[in-house]
Specification:
Length: 463
RNA sequence: GCAGCUGUAGCUCAGUUGGUUAGAGCGCCUGGUUGUGGACCAGGAGGUCGUCUGUUCAAGUCAGACCAGCUGUACCA
């Protein structure tokens, strides 16, 4: 009995995950190499930590106490211990530093790149598995290091091919907000809600933020979001503070003093950069692409930040140690890859593929020796091992996006020649041909040469 | 989580006031052509109409519930 279709497993990618083809992987790897290289120039060293941590080690930082493991992929091991997949690279770093504090050099500067996982509703450009790149400096309280991190990130973007008017690094400080809240007598429990409202300025505009600080606002679908219900005067003070951009504190002054040395890089003070995270204690910053980004359907989207970070001096102390000053930056590699692919900033460096057609089974060793000759020149080369006719083989090559097909059949053998077919050129030529007979006759893009000239002819075409 | 919208072939969709065997384009496969990609021509495969329950002589079409997807919004370490 054949199984009914309904019993068979569905070939389906889990939602929120994605498969990546060669070209994307290639571009992503180049991006990572550029980022790593810059970090190393600034004295950061690589640290790799595992994908799994004890849930407790991650969960202790979770600011949302109501659902301590919400949004995290977790399971129990044989001993009943709860394990979780890392949801960022900062929490594992804090664990590493706390665990190895006496052995590591202080200050400790490390970078790390790796996949992280979040078990939450995926959206456009938002996956449940994605790659982050982090660089953090532990044990330095001087704000020069915060500024240096920003300079390093700016240089990374320049090296990735962005012009200084195509991105912006916006910075602010949590401290100036704390001072404002003290001044307007805001109760502590409302602080997170206020900061979250302010964080939405770029999307909702000043009126949207005002609505959120007061009674609330309706979204596009008509759903109502409750506001913070501040007093009018409090809300006005906050809105004022946002627009006049004049309040600075000591940390910000030191930070800006450092940046004076880099006037050519696009830094901008913006008090509304507050970042959602609870654990930031001082300076915060984020990198924004100013160029327009389109989604798969060609529609323009608000892309948001591609990197962000800040100072988190209390995070490591949660493991019961004393406060350890720390600051870091995190780059969303997948989002960056998406943007870079769209702007063609980096091209896939794939080697051209050459396929040797298989026409005469008894000539396999000839094909092999030619393949070896081509590979030793540095090109990718494969022999077609199927038994299809030439037409099928060419179709296959077309799909593989091969550049050249090497043809050695009876005709070539008789005359001691080799035919090479330039598929890209053939494609161009075919535009002007519409009869089948003519198409077959001209053998578009094809060239018959002496065996000794093979490599030089390939070089000519592929250079 | 909340709200709005949408579920018919691999993809994009049509399907009349409920009425035989549910269609098209694209894609895929085969042949025309066992030594020439594309175009063209001919043929073919592919559907429990999201799921279940109900109304009806009769449901892709009507009703209800559920499920899934999209969009917005919330949360986001």
């Amino acid at each position: 009995m054949t199984k009914s279709k309904i019993d068979k497993p569905k070939a389906q990618l889990p939602k929120g995950f994605k498969d990546s083809l060669q070209e994307s992987v290639d571009i992503r790897n180049q991006i990572i190499a550029i980022i790593k290289n810059e970090c190393e120039k600034f004295g950061f060293k690589n640290l790799e930590t595992p994908a799994l941590e004890y849930t407790e080690a991650l969960g202790k930082f979770l600011p949302d106490i109501e659902r301590p493991s919400g949004g995290v992929f977790s399971f129990q091991d044989e001993d009943g211990q709860w394990l979780s997949m890392r949801y960022d690279l900062t929490a594992p770093l804090a664990r590493y530093v706390a665990e190895n504090y006496q052995f590591i050099p202080k200050p400790f500067k490390r970078y790390q790149v790796g996949s992280v996982w979040r078990n939450e509703k995926p959206g456009p450009g938002r996956y449940r598995e994605f790659i982050q790149f982090d660089a953090d400096a532990i044990g330095i309280s001087n704000n020069y290091i915060d500024a240096e991190l920003c300079v390093m990130v700016a240089k990374i973007f320049v090296n990735l091919g962005f012009a200084v008017n195509e991105f912006k690094i916006k910075y602010s400080s949590r401290v100036i907000w704390e001072e404002l809240f003290k001044k307007i007598n805001l109760i502590d429990s409302l602080v997170p809600a206020v900061l979250r409202a302010v964080d939405k300025l770029d999307r909702l505009g000043i009126d949207g933020v005002k609505d959120l600080l007061l009674e609330g606002r309706k979204d596009q679908s008509g759903d109502f979001m409750k506001g913070v219900n501040l007093k009018n005067e409090q809300a006005n003070e906050i809105l004022n503070f946002i627009s006049n951009k004049s309040t600075k504190d000591v940390q910000l002054n030191i930070f800006e003093e450092y940046l004076e040395n880099y006037k050519d890089l696009p830094f901008e003070f913006d008090p509304t950069v507050v970042r959602g995270l609870e654990y930031y204690t001082g300076l915060v910053f984020e990198v924004e692409l100013t160029a327009k980004i389109l989604n798969e359907k060609g529609k323009e989207v608000v892309f948001g930040s591609v990197a962000g970070g800040g100072r988190y001096d209390k995070l490591i102390a949660r493991f019961g140690k004393e406060d350890v000053p720390a600051t870091g930056i995190s780059i969303g590699v997948d989002r960056l890859t998406y943007a870079i692919e769209q702007f063609d900033k980096i091209n896939s460096s794939q080697k051209p593929l050459i396929v040797i057609a298989n026409l005469l089974a008894e000539k396999t060793s000839t094909y092999i020796s030619i393949a070896e000759q081509i590979r030793s020149e540095g090109y990718a080369c494969e022999i077609y091992y199927g038994s299809s006719n030439l037409s099928k083989q060419l179709k296959y090559c077309d799909k593989r996006k091969a550049s050249i097909v090497v043809i050695i059949g009876e005709d070539e053998l008789k005359n001691n020649t080799i035919s090479i077919k330039n598929l890209n050129m053939g494609k161009e030529l075919s535009k002007n041909i519409d009869s089948r007979e003519e198409w077959k006759e001209v053998k578009a893009g094809q060239l018959t040469i002496q065996p000794n000239d093979l490599i030089s002819e390939l070089n000519k075409i592929l250079k």
